[in-house]
Amino acid sequence: MLSTKAFSAGRQLARAASSARVGAVRSKHTVPDLDYDYDELEPVISAKIMRLHHDKHHAAYVANLNATEEKLRNAEAAHDLAAQVALQPALRFNAGGHVNHTIFWKNLIGEKNGGGQLHACALKTAIEQKYGSLETLSAQVNAKTAAIMGSGWGWLTFNPATASLDVITTANQDMAAAVGHVPLLGVDAWEHAYYLDYNNVKADYFKNIWRVVNWKDVAQRYDAAVAKHRAA
């Protein structure tokens, strides 16, 4: 049985997922449109993977999240605490899947449109101060992400506890926010993110994905995280 702390965490995840949607409180979550064509990330990520990943996998998380939230609302209306607790794992998993992928799509852009290019900015300075270089940072993210047993995510985050950048991993669809970190850049380590292109050589996927990182988006997330931390 889930603890009170775990139950509370599940509700926080639902609220985080809700921030990705617009409209009435009871409106349904939707899969966000991509800012680019399916084939823009080639040859790093094929159009075939993008269609499956975005239109099928992400859509499944959204559909299951909407269904779980509906069940949760019914359980709350019936004051059925046992049912509410039982729904928390599905809520956590599908809310995380929706939020993580929503960040992931924004974190990517084709090479011809600036993918992989980190220009002078506060984030670049922070990376060089802590890791020495972008190459050293990417190597650390890749090593930690490759070490995930099973499925999960590798993250570059802003850690409010230290007011600095951090590299962490999360299992399955757990969110960086669930452990107090602000997600800046996520690397999807689930097989569906790379297997059709790289088969079992996931190290090549981790190496190549840096060519299509949208550093403008990551830098904006960093600036927002730092500003919020300073204002707190």
Automatic annotation (TrEMBL):
Kindly report, in one word, the top-level EC class recorded for this enzyme.
oxidoreductase
- Keyword Oxidoreductase in the entry? The reply is yes
Annotated keywords = Oxidoreductase
**This protein's superkingdom?**
Eukaryota
Provide the E.C. number(s) assigned to this enzyme.
1.15.1.1
UniProt protein name: Superoxide dismutase [Mn], mitochondrial
Species per Swiss-Prot/TrEMBL record: Coemansia nantahalensis
Query: By which gene is this protein encoded?
Result: SOD2
